[in-house]
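Chain and conformation:
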Amino acid sequence: MSILIGVGVVGTVAILYLGKKGWHALHNAVGITPGILTYQDPHAPLSLANIKWQQLKLDTEYLKSLSDIQLRQLQRIDEKIAIYSQHQQSLDAQNRTLAVDESQVVLQRLLYTRLPEMLASYHHLGKTGANHASLDTQTKAKSILQEGLDNIEKRLDKALEAMENRHLQDLQVMRRYLDDRD
């Protein structure tokens, strides 16, 4: 009787071991790394230590006074800038240059000059505002900063939409070319 129990235990352990090895081998064969998934709550407050900026170079001291919503909006802006700059780099790699219009120049100036200046002014106002400025002044500053961020994001959306329209036009031209050759 004890031999049967021993064989059962050894058999069970062997099946579990081989099953685990097979499971890992299957995942490795399809390019998935087996492991423990950690849940990240998308609505949890952001931590400045966890934010990775792709394109924007912002002083973390200025970001400390921003709300969670504004930090998320800055992250969205940063992601859109990354998409836009990848598009520009792919055009450069193809030796294609597009005419730069005023909206692109204004957008570049807003992103790399005015946005850091706005954040610095907001930070300094909030820093000194805690002692001297009224609640009304701080509320105005917050709404002005929010309007600025909304404006920048809207301009980025327009630039990305124009980029998509250019690609669509290129495809339509190619389709017409192919249709004419038939």
